[in-house]
Amino acid sequence: MTGPESTTMFCTICGGPIFQSSVYDHLPWLSKAILLTTQQNPNEVATIDELAVDNAGGPFFQLPSANERVTACNVAIQSPFINPKPPLYIPSHENCLLIAKRAIASRSNDPSEQAKLLRHIWQVLEARFKNDSAGKRVPLHKLWEPSGYYGACKFQEMEWEPGNDPERNFEAQHFEADPIDIFNLTNSILSHLQSRPSSPSCPPHNQEYSPQRSHSPTAHLPSPILPYLWDLDPTLIGEKEQKAPPGTEWDWDLLTQQLARTEIQKVRGVWTDVPLGVRNRRRIWRLVEDLLQTSVRT
Questions:
Q1: 130 contact partners, CB below 8 Å, separation of at least 6
Q2: Gap between the Cα atoms of 212 and 175, Å rounded
Q3: CA Rg, the chain, in Å?
Q4: Helices 94-105 and 111-133 meet at what angle, rounded to 10?
């Protein structure tokens, strides 16, 4: 089969593949997609609609609610010869949009401000689409992203192509790992907690991350410094605090500092045994932060 249907559609937030449900059954999150679109009435602020869809091959998606097939990133909307123009649909993984909303919520609790920030993400993605679609005649299956999606772009051929090389396959697994459903998340993080001699005068490792000294794990995990780890289990954290070796205390400052570093997203960054889903979540969170910090011409 040739044509757009045979290509892989890539998520415009994380840069990973959006598969049909019959592909990669062991990674179902990669086939759970959302199409973002917008409706704007005269004298009204644009609202962002989120449509749950099934991938029907390449840039084509099925709307189960309307029994209708639509085209994502359809360059036809740029043509002066097509009227009325179809809506613009921008694809994302369901989990990537969830992370985007978490990142937005970490910035503001105000629903109106959160809606504004989601519109900003839409505007940045829409601007990328318009730039990429200039002169194109077929639907786009990916959007350019300045960082190359922090590594995922190297697998964005016409199809998602990790290849047969073991090292390349290992790297691709970091972008395929589910960033939401992470097995044993809290315990895997706590396994890197180090102890130090008990001393109330012991200074923090990095003042940037710990401006005020605290011996309580609740001051660090979960932490405003680590909003991407919103689902750490406080019960397990409390239990860990009670198990410090005699004469020592846990070094929560150091652990927080390590988790706050962007290197956690890298293939071999910080720790070798951190769950791949943590690395992927941190990468996606950073991509969302980049979207929120990108200016848009109006």
A1: 78
A2: 36
A3: 22
A4: 130
Q: How far apart are the first and last CA of the chain?
A: 41
Residue 81 carries which DSSP code? T
| Token representation of residue 165 | 């090389």
Q: How many CA atoms lie within 13 A of 33 on its CB side?
A: 32
Provide the b/e sequence for 115-132 (b: ≥16 CB within 10 Å): eebbbbbbbbbbebbeee
Cβ neighbours around 53 below 10 Å, total: 24
Task: Write the pLDDT tens digit of every residue in 209-253.
Answer: 444 444 556 555 666 789 999 999 999 999 999 898 989 999 999
DSSP reduced 3-state for 140: coil
Alpha-helical runs (H) found in the chain:
94-105, 111-133, 166-176, 185-190, 234-241, 252-260, 276-293
Give the Cα separation of 90 and 18 in Å (integer): 12
Task: Read off the pTM.
Answer: 0.89
